[in-house]
Design a protein that fits this description.
With 315 residues, this protein is of the alpha/beta class. The chain has a single domain, classed as Alpha-Beta Barrel (TIM Barrel), CATH 3.20.20.
Length: 315
């Protein structure tokens, strides 16, 4: 598949995207919400669980009606992913779903359970990517605010090991959008992960153009997500951030996602939800940055970011 003709830094991207219904060619992924949640549960978010398959189907159906074809669910292991429900949701909504393995911050888990898993994380990630009944297509890790704590570094080491065994991309939850360069230094510098296999999530929450540019210069993908998160107060800076990256020649590394984490944030409730990416943001990207940039962000870039030359050997 030839992508982004006429834009710098683009090459043919081989591999397959692993969805919950099986592997598909990257060019079949289509219009993609590159970071969202259909299901999510955490003791840190009491009463805010996303745990209703019917509501998830309604949100996917609304997204598809707006022109969406694919959603990457970044909910990792142990946070109520409902992996067994994802294939049927994909079939019924007609949308591709890329699921995640990996771990979030330690505070989202029982300490005894984390201790039990400590020495087998890489094996668990590889199993979920290559052998599970419903397979993940990416690995999720998470940083702390302005730093990488011991838990993060341990999970990143396991994620890097699993990446080298499978080639699966690694998505990073950047707390408050911070520590992007630290995360790249650990994953890419210490553990040898190629930067173009890394997706930096929540970069919009720390809208520093110099940091964005430095991260993009490594080759990593930058994921601007969370129009459902009004309390972050950074949506109004989104277009400036995107324009700065496009002007610097990094249009081929930008992704957009909804990051819907509460029921009220869904389009079928009171929030913008997944469909807002296509009914609200995409038209504005087209108007201000051009149709080719919009197609790159929503179609060509996700196809490259999630395409994998799959391997299944843990060394």
């Amino acid at each position: 598949m030839t992508v982004m003709s006429g834009m710098s830094g683009m090459t043919e991207m081989p591999g397959m995207v692993r969805t919950v219904l099986g592997d598909i060619p990257p060019e079949h992924l289509g219009v993609c919400d590159a970071h969202d949640h259909l299901f999510l549960r955490s003791p840190m978010l009491p009463g805010q669980e996303l745990d209703d398959p019917a509501a998830a189907l309604g949100e996917l159906t609304a997204f598809a009606a707006a022109g969406g074809n694919a959603v990457a669910q970044w909910t990792p292991w142990g946070m109520g992913r409902r992996m067994a429900d994802l294939p049927e949701l994909s079939r019924r909504s007609g949308t591709h779903i890329v699921a995640a393995t990996g771990l979030h911050q330690a505070r989202h888990y029982d300490a005894a359970e984390l201790a039990r898993l400590r020495d087998s994380l890489a094996e668990m990630f590889v199993h979920e990517l290559t052998e599970a009944e419903t397979r993940a297509g990416m690995i999720k890790v998470a940083g702390a605010f302005h730093h990488l704590d011991h838990h993060t570094r341990h999970v990143m080491a396991a994620a890097a090991h699993a990446h080298h065994a499978t080639d699966a991309p690694i998505g990073i939850h950047l707390e408050g959008g911070t520590a992007a360069l630290d995360a790249l230094d650990v994953l890419c510098g210490t553990h040898g992960v190629a930067p173009h296999r890394v997706l930096l999530g929540h970069v919009h929450r720390f809208p520093d153009p110099a940091i964005h540019r430095q991260a993009a210069e490594t080759g990593a993908f930058l994921v601007f997500d969370g129009p459902s998160r009004a309390h972050h107060g950074t949506d109004w800076r989104l277009m400036d951030s995107l324009a700065a990256l496009v002007d610097a020649g990094h249009a081929h590394q930008v992704l957009l996602g909804g990051d819907t984490v509460t029921a009220n944030a869904r389009s079928t409730a009171d929030g913008p939800g997944m469909s807002f990416l296509l009914t609200g943001l995409r038209p504005r990207v087209e108007r201000e940055l051009g149709a080719d940039v919009a197609t790159a962000i929503f179609v060509r870039n996700p196809a490259r970011a999630f395409a994998v030359n799959w391997r299944d050997t843990l060394h």
